Amino acid sequence: LRVCISSANLLYPDWWRKNQNMWVQDFPLKSDLASTPQSDAEIQLVRFIQATQGAPDWVDRVSHFDLSTACGKLICSVPGCHNRMAYKNYGHMRLRDILTHENKDLWDPKMKEDRNMPVVCQFSSLGACFENWMAQFTRSLRQM
Q1: Across-strand partners of 142?
Q2: pTM to 2 decimals?
Q3: Distances, alpha carbon 33 to alpha carbons 26, 38, 57, 106, in Å
Q4: Is residue 79 a contact partner of residue 127, using CB atoms and an 8 Å limit?
Q5: Where on the phi/psi map is residue 6: left (φ > 0), alpha (ψ -120 to 50), or beta?
Q6: Which terminal Cβ of the chain has fewer Cβ within 10 Å, N or C?
Q7: Above 80 in pLDDT, residue 17?
């Protein structure tokens, strides 16, 4: 399975006249579907597919591949307001949760090179980010 995540909104003006980037990684089939636990990347990708309500057959397809070797954390964004159970699943609130609760795993104090690991954030609608949202996003980044 090749996963390609683009920074572009799928609108002609966005991908024609604006700089964009793409993250690409290949994943092998699971060696034993029954005994291989879901990785965080698989959980996040399935959650995103379900949230977009498109291509439900892809949920089953993704489950056949081992996404445990993902070279980063997948933080999806889906439109809408999210209830208390789901608000940490998407966007900057997921980033905040990762930086708060997984910080000890992401940056091992014994490993000096880990302290300089970048956090790369990409979002395509910066012009739509209002002051309140930017304050929340800044607060999420301060968890580092």
Answers
A1: none
A2: 0.72
A3: 18, 10, 17, 28
A4: no
A5: beta
A6: C
A7: no
